[in-house]
Model the fold of this input.
Amino acid sequence: MKTLKSKILLNEKVLNNIYKLVIEFNSEIDEIKPGQFFMLKTLDNSFLLPRPISVNDANENTVTFLYRVEGIGTTQICKLREKEEIQAVGSLGNGFNLNELNGKIAVVGGGIGIAPLLYLTKKLGNNADVYLGYKDCVYYNEEFEKYANSVTVITEDGSSGKKGYVTDYINYENYDAVVTCGPEIMMFKISDGCKAKNVSCYMSLERRMACGLGACLGCTVETKIGNKRACKDGPVFLSEELLI
Ligand SMILES: Cc1cc2nc3c(=O)[nH]c(=O)nc-3n(C[C@H](O)[C@H](O)[C@H](O)COP(=O)(O)OP(=O)(O)OC[C@H]3O[C@@H](n4cnc5c(N)ncnc54)[C@H](O)[C@@H]3O)c2cc1C
Ligand code: FES
Done:
């Protein structure tokens, strides 16, 4: 983990309030695991605490993020332009353990929760069936098509792909493991579906974070094996271990 000033190569709108940010480091970065994140902050102190944003893709010395503008931090980040600098601390968190993801894998994302799942799908090497759930507007599905075995798009209003909730379309018994990121209500429904069919379920929790480094205990999650920090011990947890 390093605190690095990095140069912005791209910070562009994908759709509505969804942006893609690509940053370049001028020094070598450690290998990044899918599911890890960076704490991002503008250098002008226009907001105090850095914001956690997942790695959407990574190459030798560039990292891509996909983020939704929510409040002050992401609003300031989306104003940054090419060639400006941004503070990036990372890579942080446990990430997904690829050794545990063998056999047939379903990758299930809801809304901006799809962000960390692209890099994971890429690392799974054309092996994963990807399910992407959106309220209405669809984005980034074509990126997943480059790396997935199959991609199923589901919208709540049926304006694109299949109609309904992403959870309506997963046959859990077809998979050895399911990996998910998105709204907690969606992830817990998926966890229940997995439990009923005795399938492992890994979820990436997007809890509010202050330090992102394991120091403030602001992101504590109760588990069967004691309290864990979402930023340091997570954000990826085996769902059956969680007590939430
Ligand atoms: C490990 C991790 C990875 C994440 N990866 C991504 C990502 O790849 N792309 C992305 O768009 N977002 C991601 N998030 C969520 C992102 O960190 C928050 O949206 C961001 O911190 C909001 O900051 P803000 O200053 O813009 O909004 P604020 O002004 O701080 O808050 C605006 C609104 O967003 C809500 N909010 C703030 N933080 C979170 C959070 N962690 N989860 C849910 N709601 C929140 C607040 O309750 C409030 O309603 C991630 C969060 C975590 C913990
Ligand atoms: S955010 Fe400080 S311990 Fe997790």
